[in-house]
Amino acid sequence: MFPLDKINKKRISSIFQRRREAEKEKDEAEDQPQSAAEPTAQAKPKGRDDIEILLPPAHEGEMPTYFHVGGWAKDCLTSGYKFGVWHFRCSTKLDNDVVLSSFGEGNPHLTSVFGGLEVFKQYENVNTSLAWLTSNELQGELGVRGELAGGIAHSLLRTTLFMTDECQLKGKLKAGFERNPFKIELSVPIVKEPTLMGYVLVAPAANYLLGYRMVYSLAEKAFDKHAFCFGYNNEFTEVGLKLENFKDLRGSIFQSIGESWAVALKMNFYGEEQLQKFAIGCQYQLEDGSLLKAKIRDDGNVGVVFQTKIGENIEVMYHVGCEGKAPISGHHKIGASWTFNC
C-alpha cells in the first residue's frame, strides 16, 4: 500500500518537482523530523529551496533515486506539516504541450508572501522551461532524456539569474544514467555553484537498495559529506537507514496495517553526543481516498493533517499544530493548501 496511492500524485508541471530536487540536493541536515508547530520560525518569506514538495514516485520501469529511500515515512511525517498559513498552486496544460504554472504562499505568516510563475515546454526527448520567482530570480532549464547503451540517460542544464542590486548568474549540470540494477547521478557546478554532488545506487535483490552519496566543497577542496544508505520496500513495509560521515545515523520505518491504516517512525542520531530526534505518526485512508494524518515529535509538538481531492483536478490539504506541553497557552499553527491541475 503506497501511503498516497489515491491522491496527490498528479503532476503535469516540472516547477514543483524541480523545487523538491533543489531541496533534496542540499545538505540533508534539514531532513530532521519537523513538527506542525514551529515557534522559532523566522518572519520572512521562504527561499526557493524551503518549499515543501512531495518527491514524485519513480517512473514506471525506472529505478528510484537515493532520496526515495525512506520516502514513505517522510511523506507520512513531513508532507502537509511544513507549509504556512496559505499555499496555492495552479498548473494548466495547453494543447501544444505547453504547461503554465504558478504558485504562492504565506509562510510563516499571512503576509510573508513568496511565489512564482513558469512556462514549460515538452518535446519528444527534450524539455525547456523558464521560471520567475518573487525573490527576483529568473531560472531557465534545458533537459534531454533518451536511451543509451541499454539504459536510460538524462541531463539537465539549469541556470539562475539573481536580479538584485548586483546581478549574479549561477549554473549547474545534472546528469545521470541507469541500467537496472545500477543508477548514478551527478550535479556538476558550472558557474558559481559551491559544491559537486552525486550518488550511486544499486538494487542487489528484489525490494532492496544500497547507495552511496557524496558532497564535495570546491571552495574548501574537501568532502563535506559521505553518506551510505540501505532501503527495503515490499509494498507494505518500508525500512530506510542512512549513515552520514560515519557518525550521524538516521532511520525510518513505514508499516501498512490492513487496507486503510499505516504507522511511521523516523529517528535521527546526530554526532558523538548522540543527539536524538524522532517523530512518530499514523495515517488513515478514508473510503473516498482522503487521508487523515497525525504525529508527535520528540519535543512534544503535535500536528494533524487532512488531505483530499475535489473532483479530478483539485487537491486540498489542511493542517493544525500546537505545542503538546502547552496546547492552550503555547504556540499554534493552522494552514490550508489548494492545488489546481487543469
UniProtKB/TrEMBL annotation:
One annotated Gene Ontology cellular component of this protein: pore complex
Entry GO MF terms: porin activity; voltage-gated monoatomic anion channel activity
Keyword tags: Ion transport, Membrane, Mitochondrion, Mitochondrion outer membrane, Porin, Transmembrane, Transmembrane beta strand, Transport
Compositionally skewed regions (Basic and acidic residues) per UniProt: 18-27
Principal localisation: mitochondrion
InterPro entries the record matches: Porin_dom_sf, Porin_Euk, Porin_Euk/Tom40
Region (Disordered): 15-48
Compartment(s): Mitochondrion outer membrane
Family label: Belongs to the eukaryotic mitochondrial porin family.
Protein name per its UniProtKB record: Blast:Voltage-dependent anion-selective channel
Organism (species): Drosophila guanche
